[in-house]
Amino acid sequence: MNDYGEPLVEVRELKTYYDEGGGPFSDPPVKAVDGVSFDIHRGETLGLVGESGCGKTTLGRTLVQLETATAGQVDFDGRDVTRLSGTELKRWRRDAQMVFQDPESSLNDRMTVGEIIREPLDVHDWPNLTAAVEDREVTTVRGDARAVDTQRDADIVVSGESVSVRESLPLSAEELSVSVSGETLTVELEVPKKAIRRDRVRFLLDRVGLQEEHYFRYPHQFSGGQRQRVGIARALALEPEFIVLDEPVSALDVSVQAKVLNLLDDLQAEFDLTYLFIAHDLSVVRHICDRVAVMYLGNVMELGPTEELFRDPANPYTASLLSAIPEPDPSVEKDRITLRGSPPSPRDPPSGCPFATRCPVTVRPDAYADVDDDVWERIQEFRDVVRERSRASKSLVEVARERLGLGGDYDNAGEVVTELFGDVAPSSAVEEVLEEAADRVDAGDATGARDLLASEFGGICDTEYPEAHSVGEAGRTSRCHRHRADHDEPAAVASEVANLRDQPTDDQAAADD
Amino acid sequence: MSSESRAATATPSSGDRPMVVVRNLQTTFYTDKETIHAVDGVSFSLYPGATTGIVGESGSGKSVTARSIMGLIDSPGRIDGGSVRFQHVPTVRQFADQYGGQTTELSDARSDGDASLEGEDFVAVTERSNGEITDGYVEMTAAPEEALRQLRGGGIAMVFQDPLSSLNPVYTVGNQIREALGLHQDLSGQAAREEAIELLEAVGIPDAPRRLGEYPHEFSGGMRQRAVIAMALACDPEVLICDEPTTALDVTIQAQILQLLQRLTEERDLAIMFITHDMGVIAEMSDRVNVMYAGEIVESAPAASLFDSPAHPYTEGLLGSIPGRQVGADRLQTIKGDVPTPTAPASDCRFAPRCPKAFDECTTVHPETVAPESGGDPEEHGVGCLLYPEDVSEARRIDDYHVESEGGERL
Description:
The complex is a heterodimer. Chain A is an alpha/beta fold. Helix content of chain A is 36%, strand content 20%.
């Protein structure tokens, strides 16, 4: 499975920012997708996982040009689609479709299911027939078809007296009148296009496991699973090559989910589809995807073959994400890495590694290399608090108080320090820095405190964006400074941390017994 | 939680007194079009310090069960039968005091535990020593609105799926927690503020004093759910009903919240009823699991045995369709058809039309809860399926039902 064939979609340094006001008073933009590069190979399913707000949906929408990319390029079959516009863009859209997450809101309640699936066909005036004459060059094609560059792509091929029509079309040679005169080929449809489209819709209904009589029903008459099937049929209508599936089964119950996943599998085999499968449910991804990209705060942290990545995650974020999945088996005991807090705001991402603020295995500066792990953990917590404070929006009164040197409303960061470090004894060097930081917070200078803490306790993880290091055997990459030769691998450190964390709970359990 | 402590709590010993006992609860919704038996004869108990899970697909009646317990069923819904007993002795004492006229004394009657309440009564005293009430219960289904309001939050608290909709957007979080404290604990001013800070810290919100002054929109999703849990705990409840508390959260945040709930169960000896559709979450959280289907509990067992040896074909199907459990398998197992809406009283097995193992009698006989093997205790591992007890011949099993229904001795 390592040989994935040629890439269909090549994404290079893609960035999508929202809210780029640019004015002097505007907030910094939301960096939803912040420079990602990867390939999607023909016929594969690439999974895209991450927490909500990490930019996975934005990335999917940018790939099918529902959002405008801020920078970077998306090469589809060798063509940069971020630069397409007008009729070119419309023609390309046939090749790339999307299935949306919520089947309740992605179907128009006032249209019948038949109309919903037929709509893209109507919009694109399907069937857009192409015709060619075998072993001969024709310069013009008239009527309901147009010329084609390569003969094997033609829908209608004329060879001598006989006419052949591509099998997947709901059309037979008898329904066409074809005439060749000199360099001109004329193709006329004898049946209305509408009828052909209706046949196509019926065919699609059947393929996604619905009945023909559902054509005239309305979405509200269907269950969630059936609605999602309608959404899938609509995406398939124009015979796309590439489909972005944005959490297609997240809104469904597990037994319905299984059916839709099986359906997606079947359709991929039948129509040679390439999927980008966006999900937050990692067990679904493990089941359906060939390769997985793990996103965090607009960046791809790890990318590689599914099984390898699940079995032996290289990136600390992947490891924490995987360890957080509850196993449907009560006898399994896991070493869970519970992350602190929630992801930082994409308006103000960390300057170094995006995951640095929550990472359990950050690289420490040499001066603090021998600080107790427990103390280190609390230093990180204190930094979270200070970071939050520096970011919290302030009311005018608070700003005024600060300016006048009266301190913030809830000053007393010293108390926070005492609370956090109450039962551990930080070394005097650490304590000095903490006190200084707390003083700065109390003086209303949370940003200054934040910078102080960053310069004292921050290591390479806070300052430098990690490279995509190659890990494993099958072209897996992971962004983490710990992959560099001069540091311990993340997995080794993680297990150390996990052991350390386990100890207090074990003691507790013993005490309980 | 280590494996030993889980095993120890998995089966509450018979000496443990359940905090809430639900028996044969029936909640029905009457609409012009149809009558929906959303909860149809559900029985289970909640024990202090233990988590009871209820799992099922959407539409199976999980949330209606929770709302019935809380007395939150509005028209056109109605609790048609069954009982929900809240067996918290201090509450019984308080209510016996407060609602003396609606208290039934069962302590001197030679009660077999099923002696019924009289008329409008909803408080029962079943045991006294030296005049002091030592045992009794409050019948939630019969309690007047006023008493229910005291119980909600105070005795039984609930955490809903969407934290944003259970918080008021125009008040600060601190304000809302202080309100709960004022209503149920009679705290106000500085005392309430200090208690609120303590609660926020207990649910793992750092920098609590500052957080108190913030509005719900300034909290992240996980923080909001923590704040909601803090509010639920504000009144020091005995029972916490969690209705899909982590469904709207990411896995990493879900892990934090689950850990928090586990800690709270141990620390505060809470009886937690945990509703979810996620088999992984239920495996992690529950000591005992009830599987609901179309308004009925089709299987009930300690978590370990349910996941090791599911008895009911529906449980098997449900476990089979989880992608994570069949790594490497090419196709996922599925259950054909959809969850039906229970519009008629059960006269058959509601799962029969979708069941791969159904036989003729399944469409005519309504299964009772039995042990998977004869001689077993259906209270320990119960399954509502005609295939069980497994070691009794099919003809015998069916015969038993006919005898029972003719004799009118149905439970």
